[in-house]
Write a structure and sequence with these properties.
By secondary structure, the protein is α+β, with helices and mostly antiparallel strands. The chain has helices spanning about 20-25, 50-55, 100-105, 145-170, 175-185, 195-200, 210-225, 235-250, and strands spanning about 1-5, 20, 35-40, 55-60, 65-75, 135-140, 140, 190-195. Bound molecules: iron/sulfur cluster (2 copies). One iron/sulfur cluster binds near residues 18, 84, 93 and 101.
């Protein structure tokens, strides 16, 4: 089986949340409002084993175990275009855009053999899948695999940090396990979100004050953009609360980890 695909750079997929590698999150901390998004998966899910390797496993009551993907995420409502999307539909940081944008439409949080459906453009997207487009997926394998492997490799490399974070959060926020259990039962879309500051604290990241200063400016901007919009009240509450945490971290004197 062969699938063809060419990105025409229409910019139609550049909206909503965007999972980032940690390196990309730090690079773009002055652009995107960052959060940690947890996606719980039950054992029956096709991505369970992969999620156990790049995320964490969590034991629930009744000896049930789920896998949880934990992604540093540019956390934005679906109705918001990426802040780097120009009015001409082009990416303003094309040469420096995150790995997630380079690997599109492939998704390294899923098995390589489970990518075919991602090559069908969603309604309104202008991806070229005609006979003129190059073959990008053959016999369940990605043809030009450089970006996919770089992104997958980065996720595998940061996995121990994500596991340490999960352990910390489940110890100090035991109710999180209940949220994850409920999310796993819901299937697709059952995610939980926690603050970047909790990750920075739990994993004793270095250079936190400079990073927090960059986030503070972005979070304040997004808090202002979502203020007074009932449908975005949850986002507004997060942005405003996280801005306070980043304000604190930006002023805190850093001690070596
Ligand atoms: S960084 Fe560029 S390619 Fe990535 S979502 Fe934003 S506009 Fe699109
Ligand atoms: S919707 Fe398709 S063509 Fe448009 S930018 Fe995204 S991947 Fe490219």
């Amino acid at each position: 089986m062969e699938r063809r695909f060419h990105c025409t750079a229409c910019g139609k997929c550049c909206s909503g949340s965007l999972p980032l590698t940690l390196a990309d999150a730090w690079t773009h901390a002055g652009r995107f409002p960052l959060a940690m998004v947890w996606t719980p998966l039950r054992r029956e899910n096709k991505a369970f084993h992969l999620a156990s390797r790049i995320g964490a496993t969590v034991k629930l009551g009744g000896r049930k175990e789920i896998a949880v993907l934990i992604a540093t995420t540019a956390y934005m409502p679906d109705s918001f275009s990426c802040p780097e999307l120009g009015s001409d539909g082009r990416c303003a940081i094309h040469a420096a855009k995150p790995l997630r944008c380079r690997t599109m439409p492939f998704y390294p949080y899923r098995e390589e053999a489970d990518q075919a459906d991602l090559l069908s453009p969603r309604r309104g997207w202008e991806c070229d899948t005609s006979a003129a487009a190059p073959v990008v997926y053959r016999d369940n394998k990605i043809v030009a695999r450089g970006d996919f492997e770089r992104e997958r490799g980065a996720l595998l490399q940061e996995a121990p940090l994500m596991r340490a974070y999960a352990e910390y959060m489940l110890k100090y926020m035991p109710l999180l396990a209940d949220t994850l259990a409920a999310g796993a039962n819901k299937g697709a879309g059952g995610t939980a979100v926690t603050s970047l500051s909790s990750f920075l604290t739990a994993t004793r990241q270095r250079d936190v004050s400079a990073l927090a200063s960059r986030q503070l400016a972005v979070l304040n901007e997004f808090a202002a953009r979502t203020a007074g919009r009932a449908e975005l009240a949850e986002y507004h509450k997060h942005y405003a609360g996280w801005a306070k945490e980043m304000d604190y971290l930006s002023k805190r004197e850093q001690k070596p980890a």
